[in-house]
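pasting for the record
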Amino acid sequence: MFKSLRGRFILSHILPLLVVIPLMGVATTYLIEQKILLPSLLSELKGNALVLSRIAAREQEIWKDPGYAERLLTQGSYYENGRLMLLDSNQVLLASSEPSDASRVGTKIDLPGVDSAQAGQVVVQLIYSKFLQNDIADALAPVNDENGKLLGFVRLSYSRLSLLDQIYQVRYLLIGVLAAGLLLGSLLGIALAINVS
């Protein structure tokens, strides 16, 4: 087919599309995931942790009565697709929105980035959780009273599966758009090549 002039015209019109569109798709997917989606998710997580830490600072009963903190978190879904934890200033778990954490209430949890959080920063990072056996996006915010005394920490986290759900939705959309563009471009290229020949 490609020995004839028509075949060569067809190949010359569709070959650039067959090379360029998949490469653009891979590059676009990478850029959207790594430079837009993930940073915006981590920024949103940081903002939510900061807001919740300010609310928790005004709710003094949380830090005095762990039973109250537990009841507060089990009353409703405060953090969909993730986990909300309240820890005292010694990193002892007071309450968690995740039922599987019930056995850990009252125990000290090793928190990555706790030194920065104690210094007043909201720490956001992607880490591997040994307890969950999974990668998580994690935000740790200090809770201070009006005098600046550290009361405890608010910890928010997304599991890797929650992150991947959002990323896969974007991937499928991009693949659909690129496949449609590839098909349409190939058909137009073939029609132009046949017309020129």
